[in-house]
Amino acid sequence: MNFAYYPGCYLHASAREYDMSTMAVCKVLGIGLSELEDWNCCGALEASNPLTLSLSARNLVIAKKEGLDVLVPCSICFNNLSRANSAIREGGIAKTVINEAIGESYQGEVEVRHLLDVIVNDIGLEKLSKEVKVPLKGLKSVPYYGCLTIRPSKVSKFDDPDTPRSLDDMIKALGADCLPFKHKKDCCGGNLLMSSEEFSLKMTGDILSEAKELGADCVTVACPLCHAMLDYQQSKIESKYDIAIDLPILYFTQLIGLALGLGEKELGLDKNFVSTIKLRRE
Amino acid sequence: MMDKFGIVDASNLDPNFKYAISNQLGGENIKRCFQCGTCVASCPIWEIDERFNPRKIIRMALLGMREEVLSSDFIWLCSKCYACYERCPQDVKITELMGAIASIAEREGKEGNVVIKSKKPIFDKAFTNSIRKYGRNFEMKTIINGVLATKGIKGLLSYTSDGFTILKKGKLGLRPEKVKEMSQIEGIFKALEEK
Fold it and tell me: Which of residues 1-20 of B touch A (CB under 8 A)?
């Protein structure tokens, strides 16, 4: 099982631990990754729609030349690359605009896959649980999907937008307890940090508060922006609302890595802002 | 165009505004909206502050309230969560529609036709500048430029201790990663500017 690996800008910078744990876990699970040659930024949440779709499509053209489907851990990149692919496949004006901008005649030949989808549906939970060396027995986690991993479902395709279960099932397959979590598909407000810090901290604060009230040991996420909000902004939320949270936020690949018995250095567990020491089992 | 009682002065409406939006990539489906309000019920921003109402913005745009829509704070407060997009029975693609309206507002703002209060487009510009220069986001520079432009030097200094922690954790590169075929990136920017 081989893919063109699209890390995206965050995984080479502030989400370094997502990149490290992705590579470590894929190696054990037999998912072959070769980094997409000369990839460029997808436009994230900041570029206009035509720019985002065109920048994203350039990456898909490179993957097509490499003859590989694209594997993406970042949900923002996943959303943009998938939207570009869908727009091309639907045809119409967007397809013309994109192909003119990139100077290609791309037809949507490659598939864009989220790493969570590949692990849960291609590798499968049965194989995943067979690989578990250190069952996460007694560890309580809440699954946090956020937005772009599951919406819009016409684009992301692999999970139900109302009752998503890929993260839930994955947590259980590792031997951990998955707590029912009302905020699992609510927005963290990350995109509002520059326009309204107040709104964004409130949105993330609500998510963290419920997780804390449930008695979770950690929150499991699949998106670098969700992670930055829940992890990096956590201390700001604690002082703003005068509450104690102290809740580790793990990328799902870090959680899998713990269960596979991989080392903390390999998984970048020292790079999370909220200490993950309580969760380490080696 | 709207007096203190919220009554719309129909003589000042711009009937072509909806076409300007539907000609913008992402705004194509605006005329499909039949005002059911499913978007409002799904919107996390409306949940915090009822002044921010996607149905209202769409109705105002359809009526032709150009200036009110383009200078509205709401278009910069869309979190891009896609909750409304997911549920809209008319497939208005509201998340992308808000982006299309924001693009028009940015253009009109540059020409001095509307006043934009939000700092969001300034940060977005710092981000896209990085892509244009390197093909990738040089996170450290984007954050420094973005925070400096939106929160000033005092705002930037408040990040000093965080900055050291992030650097110590090896989470920010000190040098940009650059795409080799930069002419292709420049070509994309140029092609879209000419539109």
Answer: none
